[in-house]
Amino acid sequence: MVSITFDDGWIGQATFASPMLAERGWPGTFYLVPDWLGGEKSGEKFLTIEQAKQLIVAGHEIGNHTEHHQTLTRLKPRRMYKEMDLAQVHLSEWLSISRDSILSLASPHGTFDKRVLTNAKKLFESHRSGKTVLNTPDTDPFVLGAFLIENDNKRIRSPEWLGNLLQRAADERSWAVLVFHNIVDGPVRRGTSETLRDFERTLDQIQESGLEVVTVSEGVEGIHAGNTPADCAACSGADGSAQEGGGRHVAQRTRRSRRESLAKVDQRLLELFGKLRGRPNHTAAFTRHLVFEARELGFEFFPFLFGVELCQVHAHADLVTQLRQ
Ligand SMILES: [Zn+2]
């Protein structure tokens, strides 16, 4: 397995990375810093709240990178917890998602100690650390290893290095987590940024490796089930026996097929919206209709702006069928 993760919420993650992942049908994990959303630093912008919402629509995972991106180990206990908790509050409120759906923490600079982990365990299911190792079934989900892909690190930037890493992940059935920052079109201004060309080449290499691309929360489930989902005997029932971890894989598959069906629902809602367009008060009518139907059926509902005001319901495809009746 391989996970493609992004830190800090740089704008290129929304403008370039998300559509490039979507082209391949891959999910990413975006560790956001609420305090930075909509702002900029040294002339490079961060993504806006609306762009962050669109990452969710595209099926990506949103992770927590703390409220202000401070080095957690330097903070007093209460402040340390607050940095994680406040980011949960803001991300869930601003992006209209449940805070229970934000399962993954990445500590700023990957810096952690025992206290960081104790706090992280109260709020999350995993923590991505600064350890540069592949993850195995023995890996503590609160000390996940990851590899920072930096433009100014010539060794790590080389196709040979990545090729070897992916080969090892395939051979050992381990899980590689890659970390990116901004993706830029043109010359890079900071060492952590990645050019479009290099990012595309990285994605090509991942595709060639044949490894499954998963979000971090899917990876945590997958690796601890001891197998990659594609060839899990417990899920396929190949040996007919119920094995430990099988349930996790079923949940993981359910989540994946849910993501796929959500993408279809999004498409069908767009079509439905197209049909309603032009009728009097079409936007308001459409919104009311969807909110009502969604609530009746107990689904979550997210409003989004795509140039026109458009509501999207994260729900089962049946909902669309019902809407059309
Ligand atoms: Zn960061």
Name the helix and strand elements from N-terminus to C-terminus, one letter apiece.
Answer: EHEEEHEHEHEEHHEEEHHHHHEEH
| Approximate shape | globular
Judged by helices, strands and strand pairing, the structural class is: alpha/beta
Distance between the termini: 42 Å
* The first-level CATH class name of the largest domain: Alpha Beta
Task: Give the % helix.
Answer: 40-55%
CATH superfamily of the largest domain: Glycoside hydrolase/deacetylase
CATH architecture assignment of the largest domain: Alpha-Beta Barrel
> What proportion of the residues form beta strands (DSSP E)?
15-25%
- What is the gyration radius calculated from CA atoms? 20 Å
CATH fold description of the largest domain: TIM Barrel
Question: Could you tell me the mean pLDDT?
Answer: 79
Give the uncertain stretches in residue-range form.
Answer: 227-253, 294-325
What is the fold's blueprint, element by element?
Layout: E1 2-7, H1 12-24, E2 29-32, E3 40-41, E4 44-45, H2 49-57, E5 61-64, H3 77-94, E6 104-106, H4 114-123, E7 126-128, E8 147-148, H5 154-157, H6 159-172, E9 176-180, E10 183-184, E11 194-195, H7 196-209, H8 216-224, H9 233-236, H10 246-276, H11 282-296, E12 300-306, E13 308-314, H12 317-324
Parallel strand pairs: 1-2, 1-9, 2-5, 6-7, 8-9, 10-11
Antiparallel strand pairs: 3-4, 12-13
Helix pairs in contact: 1-7, 3-4, 6-7
The protein binds zinc ion.
Tell me about this structure.
The structure is a single chain. This protein is α/β, with parallel strands linked by helices. The protein folds into 2 domains: 2-225, Alpha-Beta Barrel (TIM Barrel), CATH 3.20.20; 246-324. Helices cover 46% and strands 15% of the residues. It is built from 12 helices and 13 strands. It is globular and about 45 Å long.
